[in-house]
Amino acid sequence: MRRLGDGVEAALHCAVILAALPRNKVLSGRDLAALHGLSESYLLKHLRALTAAAVTEALPGPRGGYRLARRADEISMLDVVEAIDGPGPAYVCREIRQKGDVTTNAPCAYKADCFIKRRMLAAEKLWRDALRSQTLKDLLGDGEVEIGDHNKQAVEEFIGDKQR
Amino acid sequence: MRRLGDGVEAALHCAVILAALPRNKVLSGRDLAALHGLSESYLLKHLRALTAAAVTEALPGPRGGYRLARRADEISMLDVVEAIDGPGPAYVCREIRQKGDVTTNAPCAYKADCFIKRRMLAAEKLWRDALRSQTLKDLLGDGEVEIGDHNKQAVEEFIGDKQR
To answer: pTM of the prediction?
Structure first.
C-alpha cells in the first residue's frame, strides 16, 4: 500500500482533541499545532482539508478556531483519512485487458469487471470498512484508558486553558 | 487510501500471463507489452521491479525473457503489489503525541504504541492479509471461468506462438 498522506497522523490527533472539547468551544490552529509540536502553517493546510470535508468547522476571527462539525460518534476514522487523502480507490483499473491487438476490442467481451480489479477492490474495501466502523468516540475511549495520568491532566489543562 | 503505483495493474496482468506459461518457458518484455497495449520501456521498468522482488526471473540474451520465479500458487497478489509499491506501512506514525511542550517527554509514558497507530495498522493489515491469501493460481482460475472463448483462445495462441 502506498504511504498515506503526511497529514493523516496530524488530522487524526487533532480530531481526537477537538472531540474532547466542550460543545460550541473551539481551539485555534496555533494551539492545536503547539500541542503536537507542529508548525502552524503545516497544520492549517490539513485543518482546512478537514473543514472542506465537513469533518471540522472553522470559526473565523481573532477568537475563532476549529471544532468538530458533527458529534464524535458520527465522525469515522475514514472520514478523517479521506479528508486528507481523498475518497478515490487505491487500485485504478485502466482496462489494459482490452488494450493491445491480441484480444478483441468488442465491448461485449468485457461486460463484467476484470477479476483482478474485483479482487483488488474487495481487499481495499476491508480497509475502508474497518476505518468506517471506528469513530472519534472510540479513539476518545482509547485515550481514557491508555493515556497516563500525567499526560491526561496536562492535555485537559491545556484544552481548558486554550478553548474559546 | 493513496492510489497504488501505476504499474500494479500491469504487473498483476503480466504475472497471470506468466502463470499460464509452460514450465521453463519465457515471454519477452516486448511480447508482454504488446499483449497489453503498453510501451515496452514502460513495462520493462515494472518487470525489473518484479524480478528484483523475486516474483519473476529474467533470462538474458536475444532468446531471453521473463518467467515466474516460483509456482503460481506460491506467489500472492501481495507479492506482486509490494514488488511495485514496496512493503512499507501505509500509515507512518511520527509520534507527534510525544511532540510539543504540553505532554511529557519521558519515554516511559509512551511504552505502548499510540492507539491511533494501532487502529490504522490493524486496518491496513486486513488489506494486506486479503491480498496475501490470494495467489496467481486463483487469478488463473478466474480467467478460466470468466474470460470469453474468443479471448481465451487468442491469448493461448499468442502465448503458444511467442513463448521461448
So the answer is: 0.94
